[in-house]
Amino acid sequence: MHMHRPSEPDMSADPRCAGDDDSRHSGSNDQLGIATKTRAKPKKPSQFKVLMLNDDYTPMEFVVMVLKRFFHMDLEQATRVMLHVHQRGVGVCGIFPYEIAETKVNQVMDCARQNQHPLQCTLEKA
User: Fold this and answer.
1) DSSP state of 46
2) Which letter does DSSP use for residue 119 in this model?
3) Are 90 and 52 in contact (CB under 8 A)?
4) Residues 6 or more apart in contact with residue 62 via CB below 8 angstroms
5) Phi and psi torsions of 97, nearest 5°
6) In Å, how far are 8, 51, 95, 119 from 124, measured between CA atoms?
7) Mind listing the pLDDT tens digit for each residue in 59-92?
8) Which residues, given as ranges, of the chain have pLDDT below 50?
9) pLDDT of residue 35
10) Between helices 60-71 and 75-88, what is the axis angle to 10°?
């Protein structure tokens, strides 16, 4: 009798616990899956922010032109980023894998130099 009693409540408790656990686990597994995915994404190619720095000499129109040309922004978006750089001193032009970010920084700097503007562009780990 004593042998059967503990096993019977255990067996009746097991399916309930398993059911609860399953629903909990599947919920937490989904969340873990999502968290793992979002953590893993930036690691594959390291992502870098391309930052534009404000100066008192580069014309706003030139900055807007650069943002449109090298970051494929429309006029409205480019104007918004330019004003952000102007007001805050720095703004993010985009986030890219390292090689692309570096290329864009070089393109912006070369273009600015050719046009004799002191515009500074840099990259930073995202």
Assistant:
1) P
2) -
3) yes
4) 112, 115, 117, 119
5) -60, 155
6) 62, 7, 9, 17
7) 999 999 999 999 999 999 999 999 999 999 999 9
8) 12-13, 15, 18-29
9) 59
10) 130
